[in-house]
Design goal:
The protein is 58% helix and 0% strand. It is globular, with a radius of gyration of 15 Å. The chain is an all-alpha fold and 116 residues long. It has one domain: Transferase(Phosphotransferase) domain 1 (Transferase(Phosphotransferase), domain 1, Orthogonal Bundle), CATH 1.10.510.10. Helix 1 packs antiparallel against helix 4.
């Protein structure tokens, strides 16, 4: 917001990208305006209504037993943590990568269990 560029801005942008990818909504969507943003839209849906805001293309073709709701919740929460208003409250890039690997690990662990 008019300050010096920093990695905190990159983390913010990555958080918005995560929210866009998993909700299928852009921050410029007609749904959003004034104080109602993509971040608030996401916060209001978590944790109980995560499937209601998920991009419908994510919901098709998944195996029975895949913990989609849990994974979506984790990814969207990560996106929100990247989008914290104050840069010093945002995750570091290192923390984001660590969280993504953790989520990925849970996903593949769940897939191995379902296949057995």
């Amino acid at each position: 917001m008019g300050g010096q560029p920093s990695i905190h801005g990159d983390v913010y942008s990555f958080g918005v990208l995560l929210l866009e990818m998993f909700t299928g909504k852009r921050p410029s969507n007609e749904l959003f305006g004034g104080n109602f943003t993509l971040q608030i839209y996401t916060k209001l849906a978590l944790p109980e209504n995560v499937l209601d805001i998920a991009d419908k293309s994510l919901l098709s073709g998944l195996r029975v037993g895949f913990p989609l709701e849990v994974c979506l919740k984790l990814v969207l929460e990560l996106g929100l943590r990247c989008c914290e208003e104050f840069p010093m409250n945002r995750l570091t890039v290192r923390e984001v990568v660590k969280q993504l690997y953790t989520i990925k690990g849970r996903f593949f662990k769940a897939r191995r269990i379902v296949r057995r």
